[in-house]
Amino acid sequence: MNFFKRAGRVFRTLPRLRFWRPFAVQLDWGHDNVVAFKGRLIATVRLYGSGNRIELPETSSFVGHITVRGRGNRVLIGENCRIAGELMIKGSNQTISIGEGTTFESVYIVCLERCDVTIGRWCMFSRGIEMRTSDAHSLIRRRDGRRLNLAAPVVIGDHVWVGVGALISKGTVIPDDCVVGAKSFVNKAFSETSTLLAGTPATVVKRGITWNRGRKRRFSNDEMKAWRVEEPVTHDQA
After folding, report:
1. What is the DSSP string of 21-88?
2. Can you tell me the distance from the alpha carbon of 97 to that of 35, in angstroms, rounded to the nearest whole number?
């Protein structure tokens, strides 16, 4: 009898498994979690806690890993997205939101301390990018014990191109139609649209710019404004 009791306790600690097409597995250690995958999925999805929600629409794809630990969290991916990377939420009532037409080549997002990550529409993220709302550990001022590196949300506007290897830290705000240079460290709120941000830490290095997924010598006004039109994006590699 003791053996069966022990075996029952072991089985109760195992996650509920669900398999998704074409090649993905969901492991759920919690309860009342809602996972709505309609698009193409090659991934592992791990859920710890309750009342969490993940959405991937039919027109979008995700390749990588999603981990949610806590309660009331959300991962919301918009239409016509192509996302590759790792998304992680630890805590409660937090949201990672990715807008329509956005693409990731390889992005690692960490959402902590009740701070959201919000990414707009028609964005393009290259590879090796990291984005986080917290340092995960505390930097403390000795004289009064005050923590200096408080967590803060990350907000990225529409039509933002982030170059390879960029690090986007807590409290970052990037307005619409901006470009972040490769290997840049962005750690503050910017307010000016159509700028090139680069450096460590990033500063405005050029104004009055825009960008396009295509490659040619000159673009028309209509082509430069095409991202403002609500229609699917042609996904070329970042």
Report:
1. TEEEEEEE-SBS-EEEE-SEEEEEEEEEEES-EEEE-TT-EEEEEEEEEEES-EEEE-TT-EEEEEEE
2. 15
Residue 69 and residue 236: Cα distance in Å, rounded?
33
DSSP annotation of 94: -
Which pTM was predicted? 0.90
C-alpha to C-alpha distance for 174 and 152, rounded to whole angstroms: 14
> In terms of C-beta distances under 8 Å and separation of at least 24 residues, what long-range contacts does 9-12 make, across chains too?
none
Paired with 77 in beta bridges are 98
The number of CA neighbours under 13 Å toward the Cβ of 164 is 3
At residue 184, the pLDDT reads 98
Q: What is the pLDDT of residue 10?
A: 44
CA distances from 43 to 12, 27, 209 (A): 24, 11, 36
pLDDT of 69: 97
Among left, alpha and beta (phi > 0; psi -120 to 50; other), residue 113 is left
Asked if residues 238 and 124 have their Cβ atoms less than 8 Å apart, the reply is yes
Q: What is the pLDDT of residue 49?
A: 94
CA distance 73 to 82: 22
Buried b / exposed e over 46-74, threshold 16 CB at 10 Å, is: bbbbebbbbbbbebbbbbbebbbbbbebb
Closest-CA residue to 179 (of 192, 161, 152):
161
With a cut of 50, list the residues of the chain below it in pLDDT: 7, 10-11, 232
Contact 93, 113 (CB under 8 A): no
Distance separating alpha carbons of residues 69 and 23, to the nearest angstrom:
23
Distance (Å, whole) CA 182 – CA 13: 44
